[in-house]
C-alpha cells in the first residue's frame, strides 16, 4: 500500500461521518501494534510523531521506521507530524518524507497564526503533503498535565474565525478546542458538541479532536456525529499498555527482553482495535 496523506483518508471519513485514529508513537513495538490493529480491521490509520517527543527519539529515527511500516502495510497509513511548533522541525519532516504535517501556531493571534500556516501550506501542497492547523487553545500541549476542565478559560474555537482561518490558509484539516484537554482528565470532561457542529457548518473540512484520551464511547460517537474526523489518542493507551506489561512481568519472572517486544505489540494492538471500532473506521480501508 502506498503512503497516504490526510486528504486520502479523511475525505471519505468526512462524507461518511466516521473518524480515523491518529496515534502518537515513539518506538517500533507500539508502531507495529498500531499498524497490526488497522490491518486486522481493514482501517486506515495515522501514525504521528509529536515534536515534543524528540527528547525520547529523533524524528530521523522514527521517519524511517514509520515510512517502512506504511509502505509494507495492507491499509493506508499516514505519516504525520503532530504539533509542529518550530518551522525547522516541520521542514525536517517534509524532507524526511512525512506525508502530512501539523502546524501549531495556535497561541498566536489569528492573523499571525494564519500567516505562519500559509507559509507551510504553500510548501507542503506543492510537494503533495497535507497540513493540519489549529485554532483555539487546549492546555498541556506536552500531554503531561492532569488538567481540570474548570481551570480552562473560554478558549474554545470561534466558528467565524475558523471560517476565515480555513479560507485563508487552505488547510486540509483543522484541530479545534471544544472541551477536550491533552493528557488525562482530573474532572469530568464537559464537551461542547454544538460548537463542533457550528464550526463544521462554517468550514466543511475534516475537524480534529486533540486530547482524545479518557472519553466515553458515547462522547467519541457524539463528537464524530457532529463533525470530528480525526481523533488524536495516546495517553490512555500508554497507561493501559504499561499496566498490562507490569502485570505480565510480575506473573512471568522468566520473561526475556524479546517477550516484552511481543507483549507490547499485542497490548497496543488490543487497545487500538477497540478504538478503531468506536471511531467507525473499521472496514473503510
Ligand atoms: Zn494535540
From TrEMBL:
Domain of life: Bacteria
Cofactor: Zn(2+)
A matching Pfam family: F_bP_aldolase
Annotated InterPro entries: Class_II_FBP_aldolase, FBA_II
Protein name (Swiss-Prot/TrEMBL): Class II fructose-bisphosphate aldolase
Amino acid at each position: 500500500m502506498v503512503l497516504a496523506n490526510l486528504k486520502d483518508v479523511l475525505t471519505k471519513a468526512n462524507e461518511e461521518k466516521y473518524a480515523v485514529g491518529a496515534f502518537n508513537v515513539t518506538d517500533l513495538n507500539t508502531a507495529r501494534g498500531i499498524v497490526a490493529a488497522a490491518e486486522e480491521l481493514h482501517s486506515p490509520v495515522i501514525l504521528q510523531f509529536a515534536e515534543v517527543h524528540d527528547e525520547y527519539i529523533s524524528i530521523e529515527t522514527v521517519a524511517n521506521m514509520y515510512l517502512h511500516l506504511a509502505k509494507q502495510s495492507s491499509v493506508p497509513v499516514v505519516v504525520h507530524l503532530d504539533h509542529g511548533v518550530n518551522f525547522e522541525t516541520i521542514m525536517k519532516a517534509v524532507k524526511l518524507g512525512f506525508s502530512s504535517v501539523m502546524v501549531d501556531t495556535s497561541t498566536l493571534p489569528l492573523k499571525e497564526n494564519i500567516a505562519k500556516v500559509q507559509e507551510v501550506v504553500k510548501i507542503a501542497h506543492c510537494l503533495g503533503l497535507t497540513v493540519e492547523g489549529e485554532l483555539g487553545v487546549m492546555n498541556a500541549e506536552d500531554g503531561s498535565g492532569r488538567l481540570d476542565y474548570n481551570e480552562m478559560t473560554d478558549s474554545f474555537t470561534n466558528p467565524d474565525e475558523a471560517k476565515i482561518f480555513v479560507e485563508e490558509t487552505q488547510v486540509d484539516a483543522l484541530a479545534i478546542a471544544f472541551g477536550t484537554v491533552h493528557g488525562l482528565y482530573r474532572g469530568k470532561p464537559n464537551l461542547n458538541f454544538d460548537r463542533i457542529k457550528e464550526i463544521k457548518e462554517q468550514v466543511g473540512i475534516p475537524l480534529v479532536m486533540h486530547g482524545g484520551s479518557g472519553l466515553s464511547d458515547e462522547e467519541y460517537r457524539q463528537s464524530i456525529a457532529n463533525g470530528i474526523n480525526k481523533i488524536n489518542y495516546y495517553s490512555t493507551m500508554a497507561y493501559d499498555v504499561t499496566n498490562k506489561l507490569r502485570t505480565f512481568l510480575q506473573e512471568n519472572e522468566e520473561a526475556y527482553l524479546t517477550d516484552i517486544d511481543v507483549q507490547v505489540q499485542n497490548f497496543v494492538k488490543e487497545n487500538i482495535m477497540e478504538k478503531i471500532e468506536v471511531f467507525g473506521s473499521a472496514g473503510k480501508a
